[in-house]
Design brief:
alpha/beta, 4-stranded parallel beta sheet, globular, transmembrane helix
Length: 274
């Protein structure tokens, strides 16, 4: 009886093991299939977004622009995409000079874009074709692959030459080089250093404002109730020193509430908003 009991127990354990292994294999298969489908969806997700945004700007060969965009990073180490890799993309969709209308920003993206959406008198980088197409997107390539991925990509600070950071540095440089006439920048008065040396505005854009093409720079220092910085802030004195000789400088402290009220009032012209 005891021998028979042991044999039954062995057969029961064997069935449990077989069932357990089958369940594990089934779970692995389902997860792998789901992950594979997810990767296929993710790696192609950016193209329709890119093209649909591009097509809102008439007179452009959006497929050609997409091809120039992809060539910058596909089959590349996602931490080794230099700024100049986007030169062909900039050439395919160059920035146009918008004298007296170009608006730059640093740490004020929300208030700036709320303003430009309601008032058609300024243009930011994100209002241009390339800036609009890629605003808010993440992308990268992988060595040995011709695909574009939107997951598993390095973050902004993970490595200096990642695809997204290199693009915005290159596009910002080209946008600033197109600046002419009176230029405006909105800076954040609620932070300790509104003109921060590590910002794109300080490290890339200001350095490309050239007199006499650019005649003057107006700083709109966006203030809040509990403001930190003023137009007398030391970092803004550094900004003034950075400007090319011949570019006039002006700074105005403007409450965010006034900017928002002005942008929402169709009877107020942009020139009187600050």
């Amino acid at each position: 009886m005891e021998v028979e009991h042991r044999q039954k127990e062995k057969r029961r354990r064997r069935r449990c093991v077989i069932v357990g292994v089958a369940v594990v294999l089934l779970v692995i298969t389902v997860l792998s299939l789901g992950l594979g489908l997810g990767l296929r969806r993710e790696k192609h997700q950016i193209k329709p977004v890119f093209l649909s945004r591009c097509e809102k700007f008439s007179g452009n060969n959006c497929q050609k622009i997409w091809d120039a965009f992809q060539q910058a990073y596909v089959n590349q180490d996602p931490c080794k995409v230099p700024v100049e890799a986007y030169d062909p993309l900039i050439a395919a969709a160059p920035f146009k000079s918008e004298c007296n209308r170009m608006l730059f920003w640093s740490k004020t993206k929300d208030v700036v874009h709320d303003f430009t959406e309601k008032k058609d008198c300024f243009i930011t980088l994100e209002d241009t074709l390339l800036g609009s197409v890629l605003d808010g997107l993440t992308w990268c390539g992988k060595e040995g692959s011709s695909d574009t991925f939107t997951t598993g990509c390095p973050g902004w600070t993970d490595c200096e030459n990642n695809p997204v950071r290199s693009f915005w540095n290159r596009a910002s440089a080209a946008f600033a080089e197109a600046a002419c006439g009176a230029v405006t920048v909105m800076l954040n008065g609620s932070i300790a250093t509104p003109f921060h040396p590590a910002s794109i505005f300080a490290s890339v854009e200001v350095k490309r404002f050239k007199a006499p093409i650019v005649t003057n720079l107006t700083v709109v220092l966006v203030t809040e109730k509990h403001n930190v910085a003023r137009c007398t802030d030391p970092s803004l004195k550094d900004l003034r020193k950075e400007l090319d000789k011949g570019i006039q400088y002006n700074c105005k402290e403007v409450p965010r509430s006034e900017i928002e009220a002005c942008s929402s009032n169709p009877n107020i012209t942009c020139g009187t908003c600050w």
